[in-house]
Specification:
The protein has about 375 residues and is α/β, with parallel strands linked by helices. It folds into 2 domains: about 5-155 and about 365-380, 3-Layer(aba) Sandwich (Rossmann fold); about 160-365, Glycogen Phosphorylase B (Rossmann fold). The protein is built from 15 helices and 14 strands. The chain has an 8-stranded mixed beta sheet with strand order 3-4-2-1-5-6-8-7. A 6-stranded mixed beta sheet has the order 11-12-10-9-13-14. Helix 10 (about 275-285) links the parallel strand 13 (about 270-275) and strand 14. Helix 7 (about 200-210) crosses helix 13, helix 11 packs antiparallel against helix 12 and helix 12 (about 320-330) packs antiparallel against helix 13. The longest helix is centred in the last third of the chain and has 16 residues, at about 350-365. It starts with 6 loop residues before the first strand and ends with a helix.
Length: about 375
């Protein structure tokens, strides 16, 4: 086994939104708290990081947060000693000065590209393979994933036990929601909505408003707010704003830290999420969900969507699987989803059970941090 306090460097460029920094921040903390590693997290955009960790001082080039050394990734790189394990998150390009520092070590470091999450079959075959080489330093592909033979998903120790305890405690949920200013009506279904802009939203809100069951829609601050405002007929939506239309109550929430967002997902009956970090957290919530996958050129994101759906719906009856496929594909294409939502609601108990079973199945795999450490142990 590698000695305790093995030094790790994780590099993160914030490309868009908060998925990249969300994943790397969770990973860095887990490597420190559960694996006893020494971690430097290099981030090029501390302002984006501040949304997830309000304690961050964006004026500092070096600081410690929750056991992690947070370093600002400067435009002009200064020479530093390379770590024992180097992770380039999501194919970011390391500074040339740092790459030279890796090559200058007496024993080259383990260099890994932590890739984007995908359920596509080819991921299993590529996971752990060598990639490019820089002088004496070999880089390896490391793929998170949903199937054996991949790197698994980020999951902190005891996460599902904490979630189950919370979901079985109505008073704990009430107090948490109250702390965010949320007071749902008795019998209302709770839905969280965190998504990119989507032209298909209006049809869903129309159906929710006309439903016989009241819905309390919780919308964390983000890019979908413009579409919600247009449906409500208002210019903009401020944090804390609440609007009621027929059976639908819409409430805007502030951007919350990651542990609070987890609890928000645990409280809700249904979660609409986006990107990668919130996508994984919604799966650990064990509740029916809807994923707004990040759009890529030439619609290659739809291949990723279909690959995940094939796994996620494999236990469902043909009718329920068809309903979920229709809902997810329409949502990611920006098409109206109102009718798809009504169809999915016909299979609600089955969808609830599927979400729980999927969560438990994924928990059988090693979590991502453990898999990374094991890969290092095997490598040395």
């Amino acid at each position: 086994m590698p000695p305790l306090n093995t030094r790790w460097d994780i590099f993160c460029t914030v490309v868009d939104n908060y998925g990249d920094i969300g994943v790397t921040w969770r990973l860095a903390r887990q490597l420190v708290s559960e694996q006893a590693m020494t971690v430097r997290l290099w981030v090029d955009d501390l302002r984006a990081f501040e949304r997830l960790c309000p304690e961050i001082d964006i004026s500092l080039d070096q600081q410690w947060q929750q056991g992690v050394e947070v370093r600002h990734w400067p435009a002009e790189w200064q020479e530093v000693e390379a770590a024992d394990v180097v992770i380039a998150a999501f194919a970011c390009q390391l500074p040339s000065v740092y790459m030279d520092a890796m090559a200058a070590r007496e024993k080259p470091p383990l260099w890994m590209n932590l890739d984007y999450l995908s359920a596509e079959d080819w991921v299993v075959g590529c996971h752990g393979l060598p990639s490019v080489k820089y002088k004496s330093v070999q880089k390896y592909f490391f793929f998170p994933g949903f199937q054996p033979g991949t790197g698994g998903l980020l999951r902190e120790s005891g996460l599902l036990e904490r979630r189950q305890q919370f979901q079985q405690d109505p008073e704990a949920q009430r107090q948490f929601l109250h702390g965010l200013g949320i007071d749902p009506a008795p019998g209302a279904q709770l839905i969280s909505l965190f998504a990119y802009e989507n032209a298909g939203l209006a049809s869903w809100l129309d159906v929710l408003a006309a439903d016989s069951t009241p819905t309390h829609l919780l919308v964390p601050e983000g890019r979908i707010l413009g579409d919600v405002a247009r449906w409500l007929g208002v210019e903009s939506l401020a944090i804390g704003a609440t609007h009621v239309r027929q059976a639908l109550t819409v409430q805007v929430l502030p951007f919350v830290r990651q542990d609070q967002y987890d609890q928000l997902l645990w409280c809700c009956d249904f979660n609409a999420v986006r990107g990668e970090d919130s996508f994984v957290r919604a799966q650990w919530a064990g509740r029916p969900m809807l994923w707004h996958i990040y759009q890529q050129d030439e619609d290659i994101h739809l291949d990723k969507l279909d690959a995940f759906l094939a796994l996620y719906t494999k236990r469902l009856s043909p009718a329920a699987a068809e309903a979920m496929n229709g809902l997810w594909r329409a949502w990611s294409a920006g098409r109206p989803i109102g009718d798809h939502w009504l169809e999915a609601r016909k299979h609600w108990p089955e969808l609830q059970e599927n979400a729980r079973a999927w969560c438990l199945e994924q928990a059988l795999q090693a979590d991502l941090a453990t898999a990374l450490v094991q890969f290092y142990r095997n490598w040395i």
